[in-house]
Amino acid sequence: MLQMFKWKTGEFSWVDFTIDVLRILIVLAIVVGSWNTLSEGRISFAQWVNLFIAGLSQGSIYALIALGYTLVYGILLMINFAHGEVFMAGAFSTVFLAEALNRTGFLNQSPVLAILLMILFAGLVSMTVAILLERIAYRPLRGSPRLVPLITAIGASFFLQYTFRGLYGSGFKAYPQVKILQGVFQVGSINIPKVQIFVFISALVLMFALYWLVERSRIGKAMRAVSENKEVARLMGIDIDWVILFTFGVGGFLAGSAGVINGMFRPQGVNFFMGFIPGIKAFTAAVLGGIGNIPGAMLGGLFLGVIEAIGPNLVLAGLGIPGANQLKDVIAFTMLVLVLIFRPQGILGERLSEKKA
Amino acid sequence: MKKTIASFLLLSLVSVLLNPVAAQDACTDNLGCVIVAEDEPIVIGAMLVQSGAVTYLGDDSLGGVELAIMDRDGELLGREIELVLEDSLCSAEGGQAAAQRLSADPTMIGAIGTNCSSAAQGAMPIISDAGMVMIAPSNTSPSLTNEDVASGGSHLPGYFRTSHNGLVEGMRNAEFAIHILGSSKLATVHDGDPYTEGLARVVADTFADLGGQVVFEGAVNKGDTDMASILTEIAVYQPDIAYVPLFEPEVNFFAAQMQHIAGLEDTVIIGGGASFVAGFPENTGEAAIGIFVSGPLVTGDAYEQLLVRWEEEFGSSPPSGYHAHAYDATNLLLNAVETVAVVSDDGSLLIGRQAIRDAIAATENYPGLTGSLTCQEESPFAGDCAPGTALAMFEITEAEVYDDNWPPPVFWSFSENASE
């Protein structure tokens, strides 16, 4: 415990002291805000549960996108800021397929098949975009200072946004509603929307599939080897370029799938700009969980989703802050700061060696 | 021979250099004049949204401006009309940048725009300082025509609009909620934009003045997709009306997610002009049925003809409801130029900047497409030219959601039921 308060154990440092005071203040604010809200009892237990489940669903989407960030970081130590647009590419392209399936009636006649088809299509579109990104924009820059691919990624993000604007227009589109996902499951006094259960389970299946791929498959072993040490992996006969391309492809496929799952969950607001904010949130989730760590990205996404859903009403409203819901992002990013103060490597992250960091 | 040529060139140069000076000398306008040489076009600007989520608003207004220019065969006082388009985005920074670019051109007389009130707040000080005018086709924030800084006003000389004032829209919306829907509890949600915040404020104040109870006033962020948190908070108060003047896509998310929140089953949504968009019902789906949306109501033969011409020129229908306002705004500006321009001895046109402002401000009973336009001078309506009655409450029905019908049927016309 004393190690947490470093200035007590050794020589006094104003920086450590300030960070410790900040830690105490943030924890106090959370405790006081939550206590006030819960003691007022304005929001019922059922409503809290609903918020929690909605947060889990939203967090599942963040987690799927965050996996793309974390996979690429794990293998290249690079933050692919265009990953939000990879998500958008799949989601935006597939909305037209979804409309066509809805018009023909196939979407509601064979919903499982139709959704699988959409996920596959979106995944392939996003995978293609991610692979092209790696091959055209990032590979030529491999070995350059870290700032170079980072800035390229930001440029690629804008390029993709406005390319898709040119392709599909600037207006909003919406995914058609799938009848089987409408309605609620009633558990006592709690109504759980079916679509939220679908989102959570679909995301879990995809996350575990990825986990199996990385931990159990031959290509996964190669990915881990490249992540550990590229030169040694090359000496072992691993085709580094292929493994990196594959990693981008897998991240892209997950992002595209997340686009369709998001389309079932939040059908509205599909346009060329839709990847920007989820991209930032997913990056936050990846850092929260420990960037480069796959279970960390999953946990970070779920954690962020739940905190965003519950935080404003639980903490900010309890502190008497007006417009609490407009400060939802403040809660999310304060959590990020808090985690980084208490645990700089993220929730499940490991401290990187000097060389790797 | 060389001397003769040199003298001729020197004389030519001096005459060219002195020409505008001579013309400027003839200008008596206290804000200076725009000088349009004999073979030069008359230049006007447009500061409209050309990128981002509400591009449809800019496209809608641009069509109105272009049709107004086409109706004059692209000419005014024997000169070609040149339109310079700048993207004002839907933000103060975008408006500021667009205004900077337009005001850097000394031949620029004035501009049509902006679309968003936030962009107008950025553009207005620059346009005003440059002695220019701007006529907005779709700004509705009450602060833009209010001169009282202490109460949040930001009006500056040179700003006019043909769109209605949010004060009028807000008051009518509150009257509608109380008198027509018989509601007593109101919740309002805005997104921090001057337009949505201003409208939510007016509705809440009027609702309270009329005896209703404002139970919740909150806000979301632009770009939010998850509304469960704010809806849960609203459900605590179980309001009769949720007044949500948000833009797409936030308004779509709000309406669609409200279905899943216990306690809001009987709450009716009223949206503002920002959700008066053809895509809103289709993108929101079933949840849009029964939502009331207040928006511009333009009728009459001249307007019908404009729609026919729109279809001919652009091959589609207007994407929003403010094209007629942009058409009227362009005509106000061009009419003012026509009124004040003076032909100087050398054939150039002298257009006084103050004179342009005065001519627009003097507009009285101008028969526009949107009604009879009279520009007002007194705050809080300084620069307001709209009749204020070209508004209605529309109800979204199944036809708009499933059959692409647009606009929705008028449920309550403000002009027929105006209380003042």
Explained architecture:
The complex is a heterodimer of chains A (357) and B (420). Helix content of chain A is 72%, strand content 2%. With 357 residues, chain A is mainly alpha-helical. Chain A has a domain of 236 residues. A two-stranded antiparallel ribbon of chain A has the order 1-2. In chain A, 48% of the residues are buried. Chain B is of the alpha/beta class. Chain B folds into two domains: 183 residues, Rossmann fold (3-Layer(aba) Sandwich); 157 residues, Rossmann fold, CATH 3.40.50. Chain B is 40% helix and 20% strand. In chain B, the strands form four sheets. Chain B has a seven-stranded mixed sheet with strand order 9-8-10-11-12-17-18, with helices on both faces. In chain B, strand 15 and strand 16 form a beta hairpin. Classes of the chains: A mainly alpha (357), B alpha/beta (420). Chains A and B meet through helix 3 and helix 13 of A and helix 7, helix 8 and helix 9 of B.
Proportion in helices of chain A: over 70%
Helix content of chain B: 40-55%
Compute the number of strand runs of chain B.
18
Q: Which chains make the largest contact?
A: A-B, 40 and 36 residues
Distance between the termini of chain B: 80 Å
Total of helices of chain B: 14
Structural class of chain A: mainly alpha
Give the DSSP E fraction of chain A (strand runs of 2 or more residues). under 5%
- Kindly provide the name of the CATH class of the largest domain in chain B: Alpha Beta
How would you name the oligomeric state of the polypeptide chains in this document?
Answer: heterodimer
- Unreliable spans of chain B: none
- N-to-C CA distance of chain A: 27 Å
Q: Could you tell me the CATH topology label of the largest domain in chain B.
A: Rossmann fold
**Overall geometry of chain B:** elongated
Shape of chain A: globular
What is the SS-derived class of chain B? alpha/beta
Radius of gyration over C-alpha positions of chain B, nearest whole angstrom: 24 Å
